[in-house]
Amino acid sequence: MNNCNIILAGVGGQGILLTAEILGTAAVQEGCNVRVSEIHGMAQRGGSVVSHVRIGEKALSPTVLEGTADIIVGLEPMETLRNIRFASKNTIVLVNTEPFEISGAQYPEVEEILKKLRCFTQNIILIDAVTLAKKAGTVATQNIVMLGALAAVGKLPMKTETLKEGIRELVPTKYLDINMRAFELGCNAVKKTDST
After folding, report:
1. What is the pLDDT of residues 139-171, one digit of tens each?
2. What are the distances in angstroms from CA 31 to CA 43, 57, 96, 130, 164?
3. What span, in angstroms and rounded, lies between the C-alpha atoms of 58 and 92?
4. Cβ distance 138 to 157 under 8 Å?
5. Whole-prediction pTM
6. pLDDT for residue 196 is more than 60
7. Average pLDDT in the 111-133 region?
8. DSSP secondary structure letters along the chain
9. Backbone angles phi, psi at 107, to 5 degrees
10. Which CATH superfamily is domain 4-195 in?
11. Among 78, 49, 30, which residue's Cα sits nearest to residue 143?
12. Beta bridge partners of 127
């Protein structure tokens, strides 16, 4: 697969921009043409953040057109639903099942959100990224758990090892071991899903 359109959706503080940067860095390291763009909602923790990552010869503009995403990585269920317009029936959607709830706000049932997502595509992979991130050492690594899950789907035009090099390059050394663990846990979560 030469071209790959990825949407990363979540909220401020979940590491969307770092994840996009790692994908972009890995793509460049492998000599791929890549475009990365960010769209912010409220510029604060808890506001919507979306990154578009386009890899391949056809990646001439920085944003993914509606209905043309190959993969949507949702770090938060509601934000995944907000960006489902980028999906087609062929899109793979990776969803972190743990909501990022803001105190005082009404949050729909996750099962209701998943039901709506399935109206667009049946290719939905559920990842309990919060539990896996805690297992890695800190809840702050849920973005890297989701990156590992994305790598394991096997649709990226870059090698998994190159993504790991991107993590080594961009994550501070003192957090590197935890992040590498988180990446592996995310990878393994998808591989287990595939084998069941």
Report:
1. 999 999 999 999 999 999 999 999 999 999 999
2. 33, 11, 30, 33, 16
3. 20
4. no
5. 0.93
6. no
7. 96
8. ---EEEEEEEETTS-HHHHHHHHHHHHHHTT--EEEEEEESSSSTTSEEEEEEEESTT--SSSPPTT--SEEEESSHHHHHHTGGG--TT-EEEEE-S--PPTT-----HHHHHHHHTTT-S-EEEE-HHHHHHHHT-GGGHHHHHHHHHHHHT--SS-HHHHHHHHHHHS-GGGHHHHHHHHHHHHHHHHHHHH-
9. -120, 130
10. Pyruvate-ferredoxin oxidoreductase, PFOR, domain III (3.40.920.10)
11. 49
12. 96
Contacts of 31 (CB under 8 A, 6+ apart): none
Q: How far apart are the first and last CA of the chain?
A: 25
Name the more confident of 56 and 177: 177
pLDDT of res. 41: 61
Q: How far is CA 103 from CA 10, 39, 107, 131, in A?
A: 17, 24, 10, 21
State the average pLDDT for the chain.
91
In this prediction, residue 151 carries a pLDDT of: 97
Q: What are phi and psi of 90, to 5 degrees?
A: -90, -10
pLDDT tens, 12-35? 889 999 999 999 999 999 999 999
- For residue 159 the two structure tokens come to 């090698």
Burial 44-56 (b: 16+ CB within 10 A, else e): eebebbbbbbbbb
